[in-house]
Amino acid sequence: MDEREKRKLEWKAKQGWRAYYRLREETTKLIREMAMGEMSESIKRTIRNLYINSEKRCCVCYEDFNERTKLILLQCGHIFERSCLEASEMDNCMLCRETIDKRIEL
């Protein structure tokens, strides 16, 4: 691998981290709004688009999120496909075990 290819790979890695941090920042904003009550549709759309475009997967079924996927955001900040979360019928988040008090469909 020559120097140019190495730089290209490093640049791609940095872009991935930037997308990740932006995703976490937007999710944190959304969770704060959830705690206060209502949230704007623009924030819902932003979070949904970030998850769909960032090649994230559902941690239950391991399928990529796409435009047709119905997503549910839990108060703890974890996102699942609606069908997977409903099928599990759990009272706690499958990742952090926090009690599910509030869900928001994205």
Task: Give descriptors for this structure.
single chain; 106 residues; mainly alpha; Herpes Virus-1; globular
Brief account:
The protein has 106 residues and is mainly alpha-helical.
Per-chain topology:
Layout: H1 3-36, H2 41-53, E1 71-74, E2 79-81, H3 82-88, E3 103-105
Antiparallel strand pairs: 1-2, 1-3
Helix pairs in contact: 1-2
**How would you sum up the major sheet?**
3 strands, antiparallel
Count structural domains. 1
Full CATH superfamily name? Zinc/RING finger domain, C3HC4 (zinc finger)
Beta-strand residue percentage: 5-15%
Which architecture does the CATH hierarchy give at level 2? 2-Layer Sandwich
Q: What is the oligomeric state here? A: single chain
CATH class assignment = Alpha Beta
- Average of per-residue pLDDT values: 77
Number of helices: 3
Strand order of the largest sheet: 2-1-3
Shape: globular
Sheet/helix structural class:
mainly alpha
H/E topology pattern: HHEEHE
What is the count of β-strands? 3
> Level of helix content?
40-55%
